[in-house]
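Backbone Fold Data
Goal — fold tokens
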Amino acid sequence: MKKIEDRPGDVRVEVVTTTFVASGEPVGIHTLDLFIDALNRQQGSHQIELGEPAVRPLYRASDQLHLGAPLLIRRDEIVFANFEAPAATAATSTEIDAPVLLLAPPFQIQGLVSLAPGIDPTQALRAIVGGFFAVRKASVYDADGNALGEGEQIIVNGAAVQMASATRQHIDLATAARISDVITIDADAPMPAEEQERGQRAA
């Protein structure tokens, strides 16, 4: 995933499934709220339509195929979508920002969600993951913690989330492996004289 470049007057989305990434203009949708409503709509089409679409395999950003025709995407196959639109005037809100970690294979998604003041974040997450919802200042990682991209505002499919926690942490096996390499003791390495003597006495 990479940050989509703004084009004046454009609304564009990048939709990510477990296998493919598609980008284009969501037909008939001009705001984030309308996009989320369309994704959560229980009636009507099971697909969303993108105009001027391009599609590529996951993890291969340079291999985009420009289709030259509209693209239909099943809503339930979406893991998350990166939404880009011209900046709008921010509305006054009493909601607070809460950190969240979402494990939605093959991704980890870390960012902020808006919650009502005083609500227990864990209980709020139970309700939020019941549909598509917005995550702001989001960072996306693979399962091992390698950074894949970021988005100022992404929409996550709650049905794709296997685990969720109100935390700022994420799994980072790459860092853990580097630390492990530093502290691993070579069993074949010569022991200090004191350790050798202790070993001989024990034998």
